[in-house]
Amino acid sequence: MDLADIARRFGTPAYVVDEDAVRARCRDYLAALPSATVAYAGKAFLTQAMASWVAEEGLSLDVCSGGELTLARSVGFPASRIIFHGNAKTPAELRDAVGVGRVVIDNVAEIHRLAALVPVALRQDVYLRVTPGIDAGGHAAIRTGSEGQKFGIPLAELPDAVARVLSQPELRLAGLHCHIGSQITSVAPFEAAAKIMVDQLAMVRERFATTLPELDLGGGHGVAYLDDEHGLDLGHFGAAVPKVIAERCRHLRLPEPRLVVEPGRAIVAAAGVTLYRVISVKRQGGRTFVAVDGGMSDNPRPALYGARYSVSVPGRSGEPATIVGRHCEAGDVIAEDVPAGDARPGDLVVVRVTGAYHHAMGSSYNLTCRPPVVAVRSGSARLIVRREETADLMRRDVGR
User: Which residues are catalytically annotated?
Assistant: First the structure.
């Protein structure tokens, strides 16, 4: 089934996800990192179908809210393969997280709060999230590994945090975690982070006589959004990062920890496209504006980060046009310089590489209903998330 058929059958706007491509990418990660734990970062895109695909392909799952955890449990995702994140976990989320594979502690207050919730005779495995002081990522808003931002425990405060965890019999410190940023396309920052984090594992052994068995380097693996861009080279990453860890461990005479990685965007981004219909074409001020039936409510990334996309209007060409959304914001721009100056109302518009951070970040701004998600596998399409209707929005409003 081609995209035009999907648009006719399911309407627009609509997200389309290639299930075969997602599964293939999961297998690529397992092949590139055979000795590591690969945990899909659900914040990129998470539905019941996606959680099931990830489980069936043997990956673990990284969640960062009670809602994501509830969804994972709704499909029977193995609790032992769930990693729970969050820099400000609510008391309810901490309570619900007890029993998952790993809880990532982001601040010292969580240590005692979590320990108090663990039932007698149970131990909860935890990681401590470390801020390694590395600045990496495609935009300042998604650089999370440097000091001066809200995530993690600074290196200088890590010994105190380790002592606090080790003093809690309800908790077991399984390893250290860091996440240096998102949309990183070079292996070098991950190599640098690996060295720093192994040094911290050595510090824990020396100061506390405790050898931690796991090292989670987070995610942030970048992808190519445009034809002239490149994503993170998975083969290079899979060869270089474990090698750095092994060499540093040998130098420090430290047992090698099990590596954990948390790709999200790199698993699903390229597997997704978004379909729109042209609503109007306007020429003014020397520019051509092609307005579509969606916009910043289903794709906030251009407005948030200045993200750019490969966009086409099949069958059209002509002068460069700006593809804009329907919302009452001048910044509601999907793409510029698209060769579609001869577009007409009703034309199909295809935005590529939208599998990550679109459905997940979608909103009902202007009380606009959120698009459906259509999964395609072996030429067949099926609905996995239905289109939101106005009645859904009204049900949330309890009245005056």
Answer: 328
